[in-house]
Design brief:
Elements (H helix, E strand, L loop, with lengths): L1 H19 L17 H20 L9 H19 L16 H19 L1
Helix pairs in contact: 1-2, 1-4, 2-3, 2-4, 3-4
């Protein structure tokens, strides 16, 4: 189950990158799940778990968050997981929301919606 949750997160990331990234994305941005490093799979699964926990614990009220708030939640959860797995990450790996490029903000919001949609059935 954890592996599948992470896979959904990764698939939503890749779909978002292909939709919003200006130009040709870096190969690492669209690496298939099977080739994604273990630490990154773990980050994806944990972040998806946190999104699901928010939606469930709020009795789906979290679905009423503004799109930007949804993206901010995903970004904050992801950054926490990066710190968990990489003791001294490059600043770009843990950039605050206001420093993220517009395409990445859109992808993060789409990830939230993909996870919520999966919960809804």
């Amino acid at each position: 189950m954890h592996d599948e949750l992470g896979r959904l997160f990764r698939d939503a990331w890749i779909a978002g990158v292909r939709k919003y990234f200006p130009g040709e994305p870096k190969p690492g941005y669209v690496t298939p799940w099977e080739q994604t490093p273990d630490w990154e799979r773990s980050c994806a699964a944990a972040t998806q778990d946190l999104i699901q926990a928010l939606v469930r614990s709020s009795e789906s009220a979290a679905l009423k968050l503004e799109r930007e708030q949804k993206g901010q939640f995903v970004a904050a959860c992801w950054n926490a997981q990066i710190y968990r797995h990489i003791p001294d990450p490059k600043p770009s790996y843990v950039a605050p929301w206001e420093d993220l490029p517009p395409w990445q903000k859109e992808v993060d919001a789409d990830i939230f919606d993909a996870v919520a949609d999966q919960l809804a059935g």
